[in-house]
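Example record

One chain of 345 residues, shown exactly as stored in the release files.
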Amino acid sequence: MGEDTYERLREHLDSFPGGCPETESGVEIKILKKLFTPQEAEMAIYLILGPEPVSAIAGRLGMEELKAAELLESMAKKGLIYRIRAREDVFYMANMFVIGIYEFSINILDRELAEMMEEYLPRLTRVPKQVRVVPVGAAVDTTPSIASYDSVRELVRSQKVAAVAPCICRKEKGLLGHDCSRPLETCLIFGMAAQYYIENGIGREITIEEALDVLNLAEESALVLMPNNAADIMNICCCCSCCCGVLRVLSSLERPADEVQTTFQASIDPDLCAACGTCIERCQIEAINEGDVFMEVDKARCIGCGLCLPTCPEEAISLVQRTGVEPPPSNIVETRMKISQELGL
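Predicted structure tokens for this chain:
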């Protein structure tokens, strides 16, 4: 297990939909060395992006099963790999670098890791494909014929287990001396993923009503709601453009609306708009411009989050459906398969 172990791990992670690209500075190798011991890195190289019992993993590595089980469980507790419990059975699988290993490192994130991630995150250009944007609740209430997979409160009410965790993006910025005024504990997780967060102490269990309260807080705080890109959600990130890696990548693009799954775009009625500028203050992606008489939406930039709608004093804003938008994949497995096919992985 020499120096090339971490390069092999990087290549393995880069073969996943989330990617782990090589850089000239080698910052990604420094990150992997901080997170993985050589033994853990070697084990991670042999894990696939699908659940397997310990016996299958140990057999593939030629490792004694008890020793493999101890190592796998230790790695799962650190967030380096993913664990699934099904009654008495336990399964393990690889984590993608982002979304995955990075988010699960919330408890060990320090200034050194934050500095390295700040350098590396802009290189992770595949990440926007893993998420989608849904309108905030107030925007849903005024939008006719909205699909269940875009109705955020309906999505949350359909869940049985929920957890909330600190936003790692805002924690990272805070460690770098750029504290965000928005609330920190806003990452919502559901189902088996919530159980993983709760068991590993990286999130706390909450009721469904408490999860709905987090959504209300996110709307008040002008946070974009971004669940994983599937109809069957596992998480909802509540994001601001000053901290969120995904929004920062999207904001740097000329046409962010083309790079993220979203059903809607904002529309401003020029006859009602008073040009007060409230919508500009709420927009997280600079998709609204000040015209001569009224505000104008840049359709190439608008990602349909609906944050501009509930605070418009003239009720001049509505959400309109984009043309040619396909429904999201049904679950996270289909999402990853779709990204892999698009990227030729």
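Notes: DSSP finds 15 helices and 14 strands in the chain.
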